[in-house]
Amino acid sequence: MDWPKARAILLAAFTVVNLILAYSIWGPSGVFPGDVSEASPAQQLDKLRATLLDLQVTLPSTVAVPKTPAPMPFLKVEYRPTPDYVRLPGEFFQGTPGLKPEVDKESKELIYRPGATGMAAREIKLDNHRQVQEAVEEFMRNAVLMPQGATLSGITVLPGTDRVVVEYLPTFGGFSVFSGYVRVEVSARGIETVRQFWVEPRGYTEAPPKAVRPAGEALLRLAGRLQAAKRGHQTIREIRLGYYARPLVLTQADVVNGWDTVPVWRISLDTAEVYYINAFNGEWESEAN
Asked: Which helix (H) or strand (E) covers residue 188, if one does?
């Protein structure tokens, strides 16, 4: 056997493999190489954390990385400018300021500003999440502002403030629907602000289900983008699979608007920034919000 020639061939092969692996991590639609390796799931996760750390992103051991699910369908949602659960003008509690909503011109959110007064006044220990949740849900129930089927998504500290935000989301088929939400801002004095943009899931579309890309790929895509933007070191707070698509532009009052949503990986940072990455093709569905 011609050993020098064989060694040259092997070196060339290893070079090609290394280039492919490098591109899979750094390229625009990279796939974490552990996904195709023979390493155990724990080893793959350790490798993912190490690669992210090289990109100045920390994935804490307390953050669960979901498994890749079976192919998923598209989901249709609808938005009503005046949801059925909202009290009509004139029916709000007397003497409670801020319970008549304003509509944000850009986001089309319904915004209530009770300002921790009247029925919104509470003494709340913000580090007691159970107490925070109970106070929010009592207020929302009494004010008739909580949509049916709303599910608690999480309680997070609002950076740079002494307040927390309690988020509720619609769900369908066991997945959160990120296109709609209720976000309640809470201080130690009580309920400060309620922001609502609620959508109703209407069922899957007729389009066939599609394969979902792994969570590790979405994390690497985000890490590469943050590094390119020179954001410095960042920490992942949560990654979750659900449905999302940018809402249609709403211009007419009381007109039901509907659109299709896709599976996305929602990645939250400890800065409270949230990113949505299309789980079908790895493209960006939204910048931070």
From this structure: none
The SS3 call for residue 76 is strand
Query: Is pLDDT larger for residue 48 or for residue 250?
Result: 48
**CB neighbourhood size of 63 (10 A):** 16
**Is this structure's pTM higher than 0.90?**
no
3-state secondary structure of 89: coil
Which secondary-structure segment (H or E) carries 10? helix 3-26
Cα distances (Å, whole numbers) of residue 152 to 10, 20, 100, 136, 166: 55, 42, 24, 11, 8
What is the per-residue DSSP string for 215-230? Answer: HHHHHHHHHHHHHHTT
Type of residue at 219:
L
Confidence (pLDDT) at 31: 41
How many CB atoms within 10 Å of residue 24? 17
Q: What is the mean pLDDT of residues 15-40?
A: 45
**242: β partners:** 176, 264
For residue 76 the two structure tokens come to 């249709």
Alpha-carbon distance of 157 to 165, in angstroms, equals 6
Q: Could you tell me which residues are beta bridge partners of residue 177? A: 243
- Nearest one of 249, 109, 247 to 182, comparing CA atoms: 109
Residue range 49-87, pLDDT digits in tens: 999 999 999 999 999 999 999 999 999 999 887 666 665
The predicted model gives 275-281 an average pLDDT of: 96
